[in-house]
Specification:
Helices cover 42% and strands 14% of the residues. It has 8 helices and 7 strands. The chain has a 7-stranded parallel β-sheet, with helices on both faces. The radius of gyration is 19 Å and the shape is globular. It binds nicotinamide-adenine-dinucleotide. Nicotinamide-adenine-dinucleotide binds next to helix 1, strand 2 and helix 6.
């Protein structure tokens, strides 16, 4: 395969694990040099040891605007520019089985990481890209597209990321900066268990298993989504095959948000009389 991103420089926040890590590996395969920004220093440094000199790690909390500004400066200093910014870092926050139990204890943290982190990441990257253009990819979630229970601060933050992406895409188009959004769903990573593990009195693993079973039952495509599915889309949105695409949302969810498939008659159970 030709190296689509040869000579390009990318930053991936939350790049030390899950979807971010798969994206880093895929960008490297495509010839990019990549700065991984993450809170997890051990995993970030281990990744650099594993993947070599075209990857650098910068310890960053995306909720801290100053650290995000330093991150972009670091990427430019190390690799000479910035062409692709992937605002991927995200946290689920605590899960509540009823909204009546919501105490908003982690509301500010969830919004600071998932929304403000994306907004400052976009701003700092765009400030660097005004001269030559570039691509910014924000990772939202199908939780921001489709209504559902449990992690409402997370869902609200991800819906806001979608809307922000469309608005800022209009603003930055005059500089040749494209801003797009990916909304993944149901891809096994640590994120799900980090949410279910917070439910008081419940067995987090059992809840995670139930959610996985629900996803499997409602997802039209019967294959399991992988971090690599998201990484492929980032390469597409980050490279020159998508030059006419900005302000869009690409769902990567096996068809889950496409609609509800009616049950076949033999699957329906009669209502209790
Ligand atoms: N896995 C899914 O099915 C799924 C679905 C929808 C959306 N997403 C989104 O994809 C993104 C990646 O999620 P994942 O599933 O790979 O999760 P993950 O928990 O496996 O990885 C997240 C990474 O982000 C890092 N991180 C967390 N907070 C950070 C911060 N403040 N600053 C810098 N780094 C931070 C973590 O250390 C970790 O390395 C998130 O934004 C998530 O909301 C994932």
């Amino acid at each position: 395969m030709a190296e689509e991103l040869s000579g390009r420089v990318a930053v991936v926040t939350g790049g030390a694990a899950g979807l971010g890590r798969a994206t880093v590996e895929r960008l490297l395969e495509d010839g990019a040099r990549v700065v991984v920004a993450d809170l997890d220093r051990d995993a970030g440094e281990a990744l650099v040891d594993e993947l070599g000199a075209d990857v650098r790690f910068r310890h960053t909390d995306v909720a801290n605007a100053e650290q995000v500004r330093d991150l972009i400066g670091f990427a430019v200093k190390k690799f000479g520019g910035l062409h692709l910014m992937v605002n991927n870092a995200g946290i689920s926050g605590a899960m509540h089985t009823s909204f009546l139990d919501e105490d908003f204890a982690d509301f500010e943290r969830v919004l600071s990481v998932n929304l403000l982190g994306v907004m400052t990441g976009t701003r700092e990257a765009a400030r660097q890209m005004t001269a030559g253009g570039g691509s910014i990819v924000n990772i939202s979630s199908i939780g921001g597209v489709q209504a559902g229970p449990g992690v409402l601060a997370y869902r609200a933050s991800k819906a806001a990321v979608l809307h922000f992406t469309k608005c800022v895409a209009m603003d930055l188009a005059e500089y040749g900066i494209r801003v797009n959004c990916i909304a993944p769903g149901g891809i096994p990573t640590r994120l799900l268990t980090s949410a279910t593990g917070t439910v008081e009195g419940a067995d987090g693993d059992m809840m995670a298993e139930r959610i996985r079973a629900h996803i499997a039952a409602t997802q039209p495509l019967k294959r399991l989504g992988t971090p690599q599915d998201v990484a492929e889309a980032v390469v597409y949105l980050g490279g020159d095959r998508s030059l006419h695409i900005t302000g869009t949302v690409l769902t990567i969810d096996g068809g889950t948000t496409a609609g509800v498939k009616p049950m076949r008659p033999e699957q329906a159970t009669a209502p209790a009389s």
